[in-house]
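Example record for the data management plan.
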Amino acid sequence: MSCLFCRIVAGELPSRQVHADERAVAFLDIAPFHRGHTLVVPREHADDVLTQGAWTAVAPAVEVTARLLRDRLACDGLNVFSSAGAVAGQDVGHLHVHLVPRYADAPGLRGLFERRPGADEDLDAVHAQLTAQPEPGAEDRA
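Corresponding structural encoding:
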């Protein structure tokens, strides 16, 4: 299996997984643009978002993961995008949807692809923040 994301889904390569369901897996990007940058990929290989049925497979996980990022990281906004083909910037030939939390100190589309200083230095801390189990009764206090 040569596909990087297929190997991650199969557990052959490590990842900082933040969500998984029967059709998709979400994990932190190892070279994030911004703190909390997450990728959602289908479990079954699909070349890109134009592959028949691929969007349907990842859409529920995109929605759940986007809410998780918003709620746990308290971001001020979120970019959701996927590139189809090398000319569009797709660098791994397996559908992946980018969820990029955005913060008020770096607004707008122009700042999207500028890697924020330190965004990749605290991946373990971000992973812990996203996967922490709520305290018993915390929902009752909210």
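Summary line stored alongside the record: The CA atoms of residues 101 and 139 lie 24 Å apart.
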